[in-house]
């Protein structure tokens, strides 16, 4: 198993990493640095034969801020003039909120929030009886529409985005995309 792509703050996490060119048994140490907009933290893997084992406790991850982060990894060996460091890689890591301590939570994706905002803007547009230019703040962006048709096109695009997100999530979770039926012959 390799590094996760998402991790919930307050949860334990563990994985094993195999690096044939830098085995732990040869004195290499695998280290990680997690960087996000509000801070950073570092941790090291433990040697497990030639492999590396990472084990993060709930107490370690509890204070991690939710949001997009980057997980940077490297191996190092030696000290002073014999010190060697080799970057292994970096990858995005989504830190999910700690729902055990959250005061509130909106689990909608940004596409789902934008769709709800666009539908609310259309409702307001229709309620006001506007037949000309309308300006709205949708999902933190100021948008101008000349007619309801412009807003309807945006809603259609956002609906497709939400459907695609849900289909991708269903596939990731081992299921079939919504609205599709698969049969065996």
Largest sheet: 5 strands, mixed
- The assigned structural class equals alpha+beta
Cα radius of gyration in angstroms = 23 Å
Strand elements, count: 10
Could you say which overall geometry the principal axes of the C-alpha atoms support? elongated
Beta-strand level of the residues, as a percent range?
35-45%
Mean pLDDT: 85
Under CATH, the topology of the largest domain is which? Immunoglobulin-like
CA-to-CA gap between the ends? 34 Å
Question: Helical proportion?
Answer: 25-40%
Put simply, the count of helices is 3
CATH superfamily of the largest domain: Immunoglobulins
Numbering strands along the chain, what is their spatial order in the largest sheet? 1-8-7-3-4
Q: What does the secondary structure layout of this molecule look like, with pairings?
A:
Blueprint: E1 6-8, E2 13-17, E3 29-36, E4 39-44, E5 46-48, E6 51-56, H1 58-61, E7 67-77, E8 84-96, H2 110-127, E9 134-138, E10 141-145, H3 148-172
Parallel strand pairs: 1-8
Antiparallel strand pairs: 2-6, 3-4, 3-7, 5-6, 7-8, 9-10
Helix pairs in contact: 2-3
At a glance:
This protein has 185 residues and is of the alpha+beta class. It has helices at 58-61, 110-127, 148-172; strands at residues 6-8, 13-17, 29-36, 39-44, 46-48, 51-56, 67-77, 84-96, 134-138, 141-145.
Characterise the protein shown here:
The chain is an alpha+beta fold. The protein has two domains: 6-96, Immunoglobulins (Immunoglobulin-like); 110-172, Head-to-tail joining protein W, gpW, CATH 3.30.1580. It contains three helices and ten strands. It has helices at 58-61, 110-127, 148-172, and strands at residues 6-8, 13-17, 29-36, 39-44, 46-48, 51-56, 67-77, 84-96, 134-138, 141-145. A five-stranded mixed β-sheet has the order 1-8-7-3-4, with no helix packed on it. Strands 2-6-5 form a three-stranded antiparallel β-sheet. Strand 9 and strand 10 (141-145) form a beta hairpin. The mean pLDDT is 85.
